[in-house]
Amino acid sequence: MPRKGAAFAGLSVALVTPFKNGEVDYDLLRKQVEFQVDAGTNCLCPVGTTGESPTLSHDEHEKVISVVVETARGRCKVMPGTGSNSTREALRLTKWAAKEGADAALVVAPYYNKPTQEGFFQHYKALAEEVSIPICVYNIPGRTGKNIEPETIARMADLPNITMVKEATGSLDQASQILATTDLTILSGDDSLTLPLLSVGGEGVISVVGNIVPKDMLALLAAFRENRAADATQLHHKLFYLCRDMLGLATNPIPLKAAMKLLGRDTGELRLPMTELEPAGEAKLRKSLAAYGLL
């Protein structure tokens, strides 16, 4: 039997939010969507961590969702970030995404206020019972300050519309436990752990580096799916250092936006408190892009 959420297997890309002179550049956002559609990306995830959602106003957050859904026009799925540390706010955003035609919602664990495991469960229960589109639980304790334990996710799996987990704990043991105890689809939240996660039963990735090289990540996923282990491993090794630099030189999306600027695909502009990549980091990034063959 296919897992719940299997329709979202493959490559999802966590889209950047382009800015120009301090404002969201919706024309460039539409171009980013077209770039991904042309590459064959399965799903787009705007207004997440990579999309700098914490610095967007409520109106901007909603408009980015609407523009991405409208531009995609059903050519690929759209799963926008609709999470918040306020259940009421997360519900409002998720309802907006559903109304605008999003295919699913990516809901990060409530952050900063560090709820109990029961609080996590009740948060997602409130959303699952009010909204009809599938929900992907985004578990990233390095950002939120607290892990959603596998036992709690197993409870969530019985809720209507909870169908996926974006697994960004860095723990294959946690992913394995979820896969062994639920029928949820697991998507990697760490580019460099995509192949290891696939090996224990994961079915895709919500990718940062896919903003730059979606076709290579698609090739890795295809190689694994087609049982071409050597090809998948080779692509994993090729992507590894690029993934490391996209996420290791500074906080995401600082290096990614710097790379996209170097490649002529973004202004590189960020919103405070995000600041530009320092010169030493940019030099390393240039070297990494050149070694990959992008510069």
TrEMBL record:
Positions annotated as active site in the UniProt record: Y138, K166
GO molecular function, one term: 4-hydroxy-tetrahydrodipicolinate synthase activity
GO BP annotation list: diaminopimelate biosynthetic process; lysine biosynthetic process via diaminopimelate
Residue sites binding pyruvate per the record: T50, I206
Site-annotated residues for Part of a proton relay during catalysis: T49, Y112
Any single Gene Ontology cellular-component annotation: cytosol
Main location: cytoplasm
Annotated keywords: Amino-acid biosynthesis, Cytoplasm, Diaminopimelate biosynthesis, Lyase, Lysine biosynthesis, Schiff base
Enzyme class: lyase
Pathway: Amino-acid biosynthesis; L-lysine biosynthesis via DAP pathway; (S)-tetrahydrodipicolinate from L-aspartate: step 3/4
Pfam short name (any one): DHDPS
Reactions listed under catalytic activity: L-aspartate 4-semialdehyde + pyruvate = (2S,4S)-4-hydroxy-2,3,4,5-tetrahydrodipicolinate + H2O + H(+)
Catalytic activity, EC: 4.3.3.7
Domain of life: Bacteria
Subcellular location: Cytoplasm
Family stated for the protein in its record: Belongs to the DapA family.
Subunit structure: Homotetramer; dimer of dimers.
Function of the protein: Catalyzes the condensation of (S)-aspartate-beta-semialdehyde [(S)-ASA] and pyruvate to 4-hydroxy-tetrahydrodipicolinate (HTPA).
Entries under NCBIfam families matching the protein: dapA (TIGR00674)
HAMAP family in the cross-refs: DapA
UniProt protein name: 4-hydroxy-tetrahydrodipicolinate synthase
Gene (UniProt): dapA
